[in-house]
Specification:
alpha+beta; two-stranded antiparallel sheet; 4 helices; 38% helix; 24% strand
Length: 140
């Protein structure tokens, strides 16, 4: 499965199929826009990818290796390729990048956005995108 880059407008359009009324969709869009604005506040450089869960985990591991821990609540214990050594499940990190899973649109597939505090980190991640794969746990 190939990773593809999306715009925010594409994400908003594609999630429309998940809501049965215009009112529900408008509410969801408002919540998503507010959440994204909060995420962008300290990490203004971002990119959205359509990819499978293992590809997301592979990309997140790369970010951990390059930039250290991400900002916010740690969900790395769910990762197929964990990087966090902390044993407590509920803990936070301070970091210069963060990630957010926007929506699941298929079996183990959806949209994830990476946010970076520094443009140089964003550029490094963008250069890494062609190398995102399912990782060593899969035959590709």
């Amino acid at each position: 499965m190939t990773v593809s880059i999306l715009t925010w407008q594409q994400v908003l359009q594609d999630v429309a199929c998940l809501y049965s009324t215009a009112e529900e969709l408008n509410q969801a869009h408002a919540e998503m826009n507010a959440q994204r604005a909060t995420l962008c506040k300290d990490h203004p450089f971002s990119i959205i990818l359509a990819l499978a869960y293992p590809q997301m985990d592979f990309a997140n591991r790369w970010c951990w290796q390059q930039f250290g821990s991400p900002q916010g609540m740690c969900y790395d214990h769910y990762s197929e390729y964990p990087s966090c050594n902390e044993t407590a499940q509920n803990h936070y990190h301070e970091g210069r990048w963060q990630t957010h899973w926007w929506e699941k649109l298929g079996y183990d597939f959806g949209y994830n956005e990476w946010f970076f505090a520094e443009q140089i980190d964003y550029e490094a991640f963008c250069a890494f995108i062609p190398h995102i794969c399912f990782g060593e746990h899969y035959d590709e």
